[in-house]
Amino acid sequence: MLGVLVLAFALIQLVPYRVSNPPVKQEPPWDSPRTRQLAVAACFDCHSNETNTPWWQDIAPVSWWLNQHVEDGRKALNFSECTGHGGEAGDAAETIKNGSMPPSYYTWLGLHASADLTSAERQQLTAGLRATLQGAGCGGG
Ligand code: HEC
To answer: Which is the closest atom of ligand 1 to the Cα of 117?
Structure first.
C-alpha cells in the first residue's frame, strides 16, 4: 500500500503544471518606490510575472493548487503586464482596505510574514495603488 502511494506521488511530479514566470512586459508607473516595495511584499507572488515559490511549492499536488491561484490572480490583476488602459485602481485599493487582499490563506501561519501588512502599511499601499494604477490598465491577459 505504501509502495503504491510512493509511486503515485512520484508519478504526479511528472505533470508539468506548476508556476512559471513569463517575461515582465511593463510595470505600472509607480507613484513611489515605497508603493512598489509594499506591492512586491504583499501582492507580487500572485499578481505579477515574478512569483517566488519556495521549493515545497513546486511539489505536486501543492504546485497544482498554487498554479491555479496564480493564474487566477494574474488574470484579475498583473503588475507585470500593465499594457492596457483604464483599470482596477479603485478595485485594488478596495481589496486592501476591506482586507480581502492579500488573502488570509497567504499570510496564514506567518508563511509570508512580509505580506502581513500593518494597518499603516495598508493605508500607504491603498493610497499608493490608487495613484499608481489610475489609468494604468494592469488587467493581465
Ligand atoms: C496568495 C495569492 C494572492 C495574493 C498574495 C494577492 N492576491 Fe489578489 N487575487 C488572488 C486571486 C486568486 C484572485 C482572483 C480570484 C478572486 O477574486 O479571489 C485575486 C483577485 C484580485 C483582484 C480582483 C478583484 C477581486 O476582488 O477579485 C484584485 C484587485 C486583487 N486581487 C488585488 C490584490 C492586491 C492589491 C494584493 C496585494 C495587497 C493582492 N491582490 C494579493 C490572489 C492573490
So the answer is: 38
